[in-house]
Amino acid sequence: METSITTSQKNTATFIHLSVFSQFLFPLGNFIAPLIIWAALKRDSLFVDNHGRRALNFQMSTFLYAIGLVLIAIPFLVWQGLIAAGEQGYISEETFENMVFPGQASGLIITALVFALLLLALFVITLFSVISAAVSASNGEEYKYPLSINFLKPLGASEQETASASSSEV
């Protein structure tokens, strides 16, 4: 197995990382585009295979973190809404019409802002991490995403040779 990384492999790995930005063009593009590129070209190089695995791991991890934040936020927002409902004991149209002053709904507003800031921070981390990974790939370096769960474990050189030998025998 070759140890040098070609320009084509660097470009492919870079493109895998940058393809996650296709999420802004179509839904789930951050999973579909890197998955297609990685699945098509992973057998060519250990370098491309590992970068593809890491890109997909990071996208799945950030998706889980975002879902987790939303699921945690919902009970807090409902609870704050019930507190804002006040003495009525139920939420009606009048409840929200009576929330003229921010002080009456301050708990709800603060809770929503905290969770919105956490989601924004996750987005910023994702943005900078993807760009850093693309730069590392274009330089021929390995990159480990922060906060990434290894769903697809990156392969070592011996594991890659074993996997490619078993797939060629089939």
From TrEMBL:
- The main location class comes to membrane
For this protein, the record's InterPro entries field holds: MamF_MmsF (IPR019109)
Pfam families listed in its UniProt record: MamF_MmsF
Localization (cell): Membrane
**Keywords recorded for this protein, A-Z:** Membrane, Transmembrane, Transmembrane helix
Instruction: Report TM segments.
Output: 20-41, 62-85, 105-135
Protein's UniProt keywords contain Signal: no
Q: Does the keyword Transmembrane apply?
A: yes
Topology in the lipid bilayer: Multi-pass membrane protein
State what protein this is by name. Answer: DUF4870 domain-containing protein
Record the organism. Leeuwenhoekiella parthenopeia
